[in-house]
Known about the structure:
The structure holds two protein chains of two kinds. Chain A is mainly α. Chain A contains 13 helices and no strands.
Amino acid sequence: MRRRSSLPVTFVVPTxxxxxVLSMVPTLYAIVIALQNRELSSxxxxxxxxxxFIDLFLDRRFLNAVWVxxxxxxxxxxxxxxxxxxxGVLMFEVASPRLRNVYCLxxxxxxxxxxxxxxxxxxxxxxxLYGIATYPYRLLTGGLIFDPLSKPATALFAVxxxxxxxxxxxxxxxxxxLLETLPPQPIEAARxxxxxxxxxxxxxxxxxxxxxxxxxxxxxxxxxxxxxxxxYVMTRGGPGVATETLDMYAFSQGFIESGKVSYASAxxxxxxxxxxxxxxxxxxxxxx
Amino acid sequence: xxxxxxxxxxxxxxxxSVIRDLNLSIEEHEFVVFLGPSGCGKSTLLRMLAGxxxxxxxxxSIGGKVVNDLEPGDRGIAxxxxxxxxxxxxxxxxxxxxxxxxxKVPAAEIGKRVGAVAATLGLEPxxxxxPTELSGGQQQRVAIARAMIKTPKVFLFDEPLSNLDAKLRxxxxxxxxRLHQSLKTTTVYVTHDQLEAMTLADRIVLLRDGVIxxxxxxxxxxxxxxxxxxxxxxxxxxxxFIEVTPGRAEDGWTLTGAGTVLTIDGSGFDLRxxxxxxxxxxxxDLKTAGAGAGxxxxxxxADLIEFHGNDALVTFGSGGKEISALVPARECPAxxxxxxxxxxxxxxxxxxxxxxxxxxxx
Lengths: 288, 362
């Protein structure tokens, strides 16, 4: 009596096979290339095994890129979650249901913009002479020039602010909706228990939303890894290497400056390994 | 000082009025139950006392102090919710201690007080667990512990037993009654279960559509219902209502209706000749009549018999009217057998047919 239907297998297997090919082939190919010394300028190559990786660890620009990437990741994720929770709670506390809908609509618009468009909009907003974002500074200082994108100290934060503008506002809408799904009684019980407004959120609502908030954070962490387009448009990794993340550096090594695709692939492989390890560890920790 | 006074209290959501001009005073140490059908405004009224709903008009005072604009935490009350409303991410200890921590009570004292409350309610083994690891009854006990630990002036219960199964409900009801006996805290308890109301209350406030229908002790409400609604709402099985026309007789009054003529003394009632009235008799007040002629006979054919264990509810038709009698199970007739029931004068309730108000003399 083991006549199970073969229908599920029929549907699932081809899809999975295609997905497997699509995801695994480029990955494996990247690993293979990383072990060779291919360059865009010539067709000949040889196997150099791990020498690309050894070179990377001696490359100060690579180490800088690692540091910038870590900074970018931390700054964008922390700022996004802070803005999202802060704004979400604020809307939940202050805004009437109708006003909430209006805010939600407004806050979703930035994330709907293509990254490149958002980057161009803000690049112009940060323009030292004409930008609207630098206008208050010019007004207050009587016309002094402030160019956040060309100062190493501020460039990363200026670019990160665009990322937060897109994702923080969007996540604020999600946080608001999450708060709205909570049962009202524990909140009421907390009010009876002498909790102030902020204490209700700090001790009751946000801990109740721990699991979805952590999921949101993971989504943002993964999203923050794909910041290439934003940085490329706004600073191209500059000034100097102040905003050169790993993907920026890999791109410039592979295609712009020297065409060292194997070197760039080695970077990509390292990034992949680091990401997999980090996320696995974080995930395990969160689940514990 | 923990008396509660509501004077001319109104509640409206937009144009919809939920509670209209409600006046009520609750004495210190009293156990008052708000009873009524769903949507009668009893929970809203409780939430207004708690400060979880705004008061649209009128004044609420607790312990002689007007609390209309006070935050819920500052009213000296504690509330137990229907669905327990525990903080799901905290341990039982933290749940109970939450209020004290917000009031910055020293940790040592918190530990001592939580221990004492947990001992009273038998929660000691569970202090380290999360609410989801507890049964419904235990969770409700935690909710009561969380309310108790604040030593409030007033306890508010919002249908606390509705989510429990029947057996547990009885058990918890007894626990709440005991708790009130020992703590003597003024208590307001909302329920739609009349058994809970009857067994727990010092006084019952019966509400309908945001208006108080009757306030009184359980015995008063059951024995002397003020109007048709109260008479029909209180008592299981429901009171029989028979439309009758009163007429003068030499030794009292005759009541004609349901295909029969009944004779009562009627001296306790404001009856008027020919003015239609509603006769109310509770099913347990109908007694099996012996053979032969008798006074005040209601007879018909038993067409439905519900066995309750000790008793049986016999429903029969008399003059086109369904009447129920609750008789001892051993007197239970066979289905479709002719039945004859009678009643005592004292068990009669009479209401004005037009207004529904009781005709009983005050």
